Amino acid sequence: IKNLEKMKSKQERESLKVEKHQSVRQLVDETNPGKTAEELLTLYDGKEDDLIKNLTKMKAKQEKTAELKAIKQQSVRALVDENNPGKSAEELLAMYDGKEDALIKNLEKM
What we know:
Strand content: under 5%
Largest sheet: none
Radius of gyration: 23 Å
Number of helices: 5
């Protein structure tokens, strides 16, 4: 009976490990952290929970950044419609990619 319990426990651990690896692969696909899932799993062997936690934080941060960027783009579009600076909102957003705050400040001065 002890051996059966050990086998069952080992199977459960293996199943859990497979689930964690699948979770890591999915998070890596969603976040694109610069390393492959296999590289990260090798680096975090035995510490998969930490890896999942870090990738989940990264995903949340990326989502928040994307939301803020979308809000800033909406502001730029509204200001361009209001002020008609001579270029389209898309042209300005392309020129000021990553510097949307400066663009908004300049458009507000007009």
